[in-house]
Amino acid sequence: MRFAPNPNGPPTLGSTRGIVVNSEYVKKYGGRFIIRFDDTDPVTKRPMPEAYDWYLEDCKWLGAEPDEVVMASDRLPIYYEYAEKLIKAGHAYVCTCTREEFKKLKDNKQACPHRDTSPEHHLHEWKRMLAGDYEERTVVLRIKTDIKHKDPALRDWGAFRVVKTPHPRPEVGDKYVVWPLLDFEGAIEDHLLGMTHIIRGKDLMDSELRQKYVYDYLGWTYPHTSHWGRVKMHEFGKFSTSGLREAIEAGEYSGWDDPRLPTLRALRRRGIRPEALRKFFIDMGVGETDVSLSLDNLHAENRKLIDADANRYFFVWDPVRLDISGSQVTDAKLPLHPSVDRGFREITVESSVLVCSQDISDAKPGDLFRLKDLYNIRITGEGTAEFAGRDIETMKKEGGRIIHWAPVDGIPVKVLTPDGEITGIGEAGIATEVDRVVQFERFGYVRIDSANGEVIAYFTHR
RNA sequence: GCUCCGGUAGUGUAGUCCGGUCAAUCAUUCCGGCCUUUCGAGCCGAAAACUCGGGUUCAAAUCCCGGCCGGAGCACCA
Predict the structure, then answer these.
(1) Distance between CA A428 and CA A218 in Å, rounded?
(2) How far apart (Å, rounded) are the C-alpha atoms in residues A19 and A132?
(3) Most exposed of A3, A17, A113, A260 (fewest Cβ within 10 Å)?
(4) Gap from A209 CA to B49 C1', in Å?
(5) Under DSSP, is residue A311 helix (H, G, I), strand (E, B) or coil?
(6) Residue percentage of chain A with pLDDT more than 70
């Protein structure tokens, strides 16, 4: 099995399906999992040098360490060798039609003037291509199929073109001016890498039909293939790697791990576990139907994984101060988890706390509240309240609400969510949880990203 | 325009290859109830589907034909 990305950006939720499904088959049935970088386009989908490592990192994170890593851009001489073989056998030809001319002929099932000249001539032209005698967009090496094939997608397809822009990898640079197209490069590689099975998106369905011509010419057997449909997430619109890149460069996003983005780096920073992603995509299966689903499913899986390990803390957004009369200094002892024994956190409360303004905005004097794990209070006026006992049962009888709170000397917290930033005050203990996922009670799960004076948290999900 | 795929509850998914065991699986969402000093979880319950029309057959989600709907390919992108 293989996963064959073009590293022109970091892995996204879309790439994850390829990584998870292919690696899962290997885990289940044995075999080898190969990552092949299809980085054969130095211009239109120009690879990012950093992204190669990003893919490897993210694969490792997802529990999909490859048995082998291959870069197509290292292997151009191999592709040239097979091209030459095909030219000599009369299965490929150098075509100097313009794109428009060729399309017109092809659509009318007509061969172009170059198709039927001798292999010797094409071999000569091919050498000239390699030597750089041709400019970009003036020439292409085509594989002969059946120019009268009823499916226009299969008629004599392009295998190599001239690209004079250097490749972004310094090891490659301007070494080559003739680059293979995906169908050719993939065809050769899948055979050479010993691929027995291919699972990929159904946009590549016709590739199989095109590549089979090459396999037939070379006497190879095509791997078993299956294809999955398109995935659309309700939460993310249409996104392309190049589109994201532009938006990031324009400053619309803070970077490739902006919490609004569907990149793996962003999901990881938000505290999504790799196991949740694996389960999510394995449960999705490999059907050919297009699916459109909500991140809720992923979040549900993630919640099951993180809940028992996530310590609870109070975070008060849009805080307002409440001065409480009649209370004594109290050392509150609060469990770090409601059902798992994870110990306690302690907060000393003198005579004021912070609460969310929305919790008391409608409160009238006389209304009873329970400050969770502390004591009861009764509202007496704007920003003031009085102590109303410690017994929760009496409060329950009266039907008061339980709200959370924060100490007045808590630390500032900023939560980055897909919908924007939320700021407030949290208890000091949060600062000890850097790089862990915790739950802000009555708010949701967050991953504590940093705590230098101010805590920066990335919202995970509710 | 030509060509290729697909269509099972709100959303995914199993079953389709090899027709009966399907009065259709599982998960999730929504809605009730229990439990709970947050949220969630847990437990109980409820609702919810074979795209349509023909055909073959004793028997069709399953096989065949047609319609409708959706997606993809027809690049000197991957």
Answers:
(1) 68
(2) 37
(3) A113
(4) 35
(5) coil
(6) 99
Q: pLDDT digit string (tens) for A370-380?
A: 999 999 999 99
**Strand B: positions under 7 A of a protein C-beta atom:** 1-8, 10-14, 27-29, 36-42, 70-78
Q: Which residue's structure tokens are 């139907």? A: A289
Q: H-type helices in A159-240, by residue range?
A: 182-192, 205-218
CA–C1' distance A172–B27 (Å)?
48
Label residue A218 by pLDDT band (50, 70, 90): very high
Rounded to two decimals, the pTM is 0.91
Q: How many CA atoms lie within 13 A of A445 on its CB side?
A: 24
Measuring alpha carbon to C1', the residue closest to nucleotide B37 is A372
Distance A289 CA to B51 C1' (A): 14
Quickly give A262 CA vs B12 C1' distance in Å.
19
- Please provide the DSSP assignment of A59-125 as one string: HHHTT---SEEEEGGG-HHHHHHHHHHHHHTTSEEEE---HHHHHHHHHTT---TTTTS-HHHHHHH
